[in-house]
Design goal:
mainly alpha, MetI-like fold, 2 domains, 11 helices, globular
Length: 269
């Protein structure tokens, strides 16, 4: 009996839910989109959804096809992507650098942390007229607005991630005689990377919102300008096509960050 009891105690019990390990279920996501599109199409065909309010997916697809064949899609998308990538990359790089400076140097934290806390809650869209006055209606005002909007969330995510790194790892690095730069590069940066990447997801969405807002007001090319033109002409199918392009852009950026996350955080297993 004792042997049986010992055998039962030593039997491993699988944790329910697989230890919260994520299992990709791409077919479920695709099926959800397909069902929603089918309901939307049927509702529009039967008149339950007015075409004046929301055109059928087939009409939106026709508008997207015209955008593709006429060359307007790449014209508007390339303009938005150029502004988006420039502002977002600059804002992210500067935000990570300033965030590390705040986390590592007490004088920098004392001087810049209150400034970041004061400016961060200000809606960046409200500053667009000011940016236009400062930099004109050209590319500088749009790129500057995106840079400004992505900079502060990146700073907060970075120094918050560095602050959450286990101090025991830092002390261990010091005991091995690592320099301050080596500790920052080999211990603090990898430890803060999950927080930085999470901040990048948020700032990517912020950047898309800001570029659309900027193009709605002061642009002749870009997805925001296309949506503004479609809305002024009451071309709802074209307007919805523009919105779906923005949604696809957001999904693409999120997928790229996911790939970057898998590569940079492969040490987590």
């Amino acid at each position: 009996m004792a042997d049986n009891g010992t055998e039962r105690q030593g039997t491993p019990v699988p944790f329910r839910g697989g230890g919260y390990r994520y299992r990709p279920m791409r077919l479920i996501g695709a099926a959800t989109f397909a069902i929603l599109l089918a309901i939307w199409e049927v509702g529009s065909r039967t008149g339950f959804i007015s075409s004046l309010v929301l055109p059928a997916p087939s009409e939106v697809a026709s508008a997207f096809g015209y955008l593709w064949t006429s060359g307007q899609l790449w014209e508007h998308l390339s303009a938005s992507l150029g502004r988006l990538v420039s502002g977002w990359v600059l804002g992210t790089v500067l935000g990570v650098a300033v965030g590390f400076a705040i986390a590592l140097f007490a004088p920098v934290r004392a001087s810049l942390s209150p400034l970041v806390a004061a400016i961060f809650p200000v809606p960046k869209i409200a500053l667009l007229p000011l940016f236009i006055i400062w930099f004109g209606i050209g590319e500088a005002s749009k790129v500057g607005l995106i840079l400004f909007g992505t900079f502060f969330p990146t700073v907060i995510a970075t120094y918050g991630g560095v602050d959450n790194v286990d101090r025991g790892l830092v002390r261990m690095g010091q005991s091995f005689g690592l320099t301050r730069l080596s500790i920052a590069r080999k211990i603090l940066l990898p430890g803060a990377m999950p927080a930085i990447l999470s901040g990048m997801r948020i700032t990517a969405a912020i950047a898309i919102i800001l570029i659309v807002a900027a193009e709605l007001i002061a642009a002749q090319r870009g997805i925001g300008a296309y949506i503004q033109m479609a809305g002024s002409l009451f071309a709802i199918d074209q307007l919805v096509a523009g919105v779906l392009i923005l949604s696809a852009l957001g999904l693409t950026v999120s997928a790229m960050i996911t790939l970057l996350e898998r590569w940079l955080l492969r040490w987590r297993g």
